[in-house]
Amino acid sequence: MKKIITTDDAPTPIGPYNQAILSGNTLYTSGQIAINPITGELVLEDIFSETKQVMENMKAVLSKAEMTFENVVKTSIFISDMHNFSAINKVYATYFNEATAPARETVEVANLPKFVNVEISMIAVK
C-alpha cells in the first residue's frame, strides 16, 4: 500500500509524478530542483543558493511525511557540471550529521529538468 505525500511547501510537480510516496515505513522522494514553491520561479543566482533551495524543498517533503534528514538512508545527486561538486557538497553537508550521513551517489548528467544545475532525490525510513 502506498500513500501519496504532497505539500504546498515544496514545488508542484512539473510532470505526471508525486513529490513522494510512502510505502510502509519507507519514503521515496522524487527529485527536487531549485523552484521556489511560493513564487514558482527558479532560484539560480549561484550554485550555493540553488542547492540550498533544493535542500529546503526536500526538507519540506520530508517534514510532510513526519521525517527529517536523520531519516534519510540514501540520496542521489544529479549535477550538470562536476566542477560544481565542491560547492554543492558544502551546502549539502550542512543538512546532515557527518557521522550518520546517508549513502549517496553523485552523477554528472547532460541535462536536467528546466536546465538546472542540480537535482536531488532521497530515500528515508521511519
TrEMBL record:
InterPro entries: RidA, RutC-like_sf, YjgF/YER057c/UK114. One of its GO terms (molecular function) is deaminase activity. Gene3D superfamilies: RutC-like (3.30.1330.40). GO terms for cellular component: cytosol. Belongs to the RutC family. NCBIfam families: Rid family detoxifying hydrolase. PANTHER family: 2-IMINOBUTANOATE/2-IMINOPROPANOATE DEAMINASE RIDA (PTHR11803), PROTEIN HMF1-RELATED (PTHR11803:SF58). This is 2-iminobutanoate/2-iminopropanoate deaminase.
